[in-house]
Amino acid sequence: MYVLIAFLTPILHALSCIVDAHFSNNIFKKVPSLVFYATISNIIIIPFLFLFGTPIIPPLEILAILFIISLIEVCYQIPYYHALRNIDTSIVVALFSLGKIAVPVLAYFIVNEKLSLTQYCGFGIILLSTFLLNFDIKKLKINIAFFLMLVVSLLLSLSSVLSKYSLQSVDFVTVLFWGSLLTTSISLSFLLLLQYRTDIISSFPQYKKKIKLFLSNEILNQAGTLTITIALAYLPVLVVESIESSQSIFTLLLGFVLYKIFGNSFKENLTRQEVIKKLISFTAIIIGICFVLE
What we know:
Elements (H helix, E strand, L loop, with lengths): L1 H26 L3 H10 L5 H4 L10 H16 L1 H8 L4 H6 L8 H9 L5 H17 L1 E2 L4 E2 L1 H24 L4 H17 L5 H9 L1 H6 L1 H22 L4 H8 L2 H16 L9 H22 L1
Antiparallel strand pairs: 1-2
């Protein structure tokens, strides 16, 4: 059952990433303003958390870890939104797998998790597939989005392991409650910087015009975060992270559906050659996931 719950995460986050690409490429000119409006909306999840339980005041050590997680949740979005401006959404999503190279190492030292040789081989297939997807053989060059998402994925991998560590001391309701509060507080600190504050204020009309889409996107993102937090409480970190690698496949499929409905409002190359290339790489990722889940 928890494996099925874990698979809800890539589906929900795939939809969220498609909307993120729309915001980054079509709505906001400067990334810091987009990060600000994207993160302050996450406070809407707090009332819904009380349906699952009552958050507590965690020990100081756990609170410090939750602050680091929240800081990561804000900071990773800057290179992430820049990557969405440089390459197709589904490929950006596939690049989230890059940071998973750090997961087994971090998981071993922080929560003492060990997996079989077959599972680590599957993990390697996932990494190799994402590399080949972004490597231009003719130019012997890797696009800049690769390096941007390497930073993003490493940060998020650290965040996942720290979340797993936190869940050993407090429940997921407490983790999400304090994470939401701290993330919003960090985002509000952008207003202290003049260069950010000026653009944030001038961008408010765009945010107001798209506020329903922002809130809907936040619900998708938070629902995905909820499912992965629940899954992390019962499954190994590497298993959950590998399941998340299927997000690129869902992004491509959902992007195709949305293209048919709304036209080319989302950044995704859907030519025959590109789709075949992506599907081969994404299929390899699925095979890697199967090995990890073995």
